[in-house]
Amino acid sequence: MAWTLLIIAGILEVGWAIGLKYTEGFTRVVPTLLTLGSMIASMSLLGVAAKTLPIGTAYGIWVGIGAVGAAVLGIVLFKEPATPARLAFLGMMIVAIVGLKATSGH
């Protein structure tokens, strides 16, 4: 269950990271409320998952999911560059996330 909560927390982190772009500096009410809600939910789920999982593993995977997801959505939604080097480093981050999970002992 902790792993499921952690993955959901990571997805919510992607949501609030992308949501920051839509808040336009927290000047738009609805995107700001959705972003803040996603932040609270994401960190709450991370906290619950960290009760069971090692904090280094949980936090590393949470940040990794958020970083990879935000970068991919940045490419898709905001036409950010998708250079071979950038894609390769995103691939390495995915390998690191999988490696943390595989070596967590949980």
From TrEMBL:
PANTHER family xrefs: GUANIDINIUM EXPORTER, SMR FAMILY PROTON-DEPENDENT DRUG EFFLUX TRANSPORTER SUGE
Recorded family membership: Belongs to the drug/metabolite transporter (DMT) superfamily. Small multidrug resistance (SMR) (TC 2.A.7.1) family.
Record keywords, A-Z: Cell membrane, Membrane, Transmembrane, Transmembrane helix, Transport
UniProt cross-references to InterPro entries, sorted A to Z: EmrE-like, Small_drug/metabolite_transptr, Small_multidrug_res
Cross-referenced SUPFAM superfamilies: Multidrug resistance efflux transporter EmrE
GO cellular component: plasma membrane
Domain of life, per lineage: Bacteria
Membrane-crossing residue ranges in chain numbering: 33-50, 57-78, 84-103
Subcellular location: Cell membrane
GO function terms (MF aspect): transmembrane transporter activity
Keyword Mitochondrion among record annotations: no
Membrane-protein topology: Multi-pass membrane protein
Protein name per the record: Small multidrug resistance protein
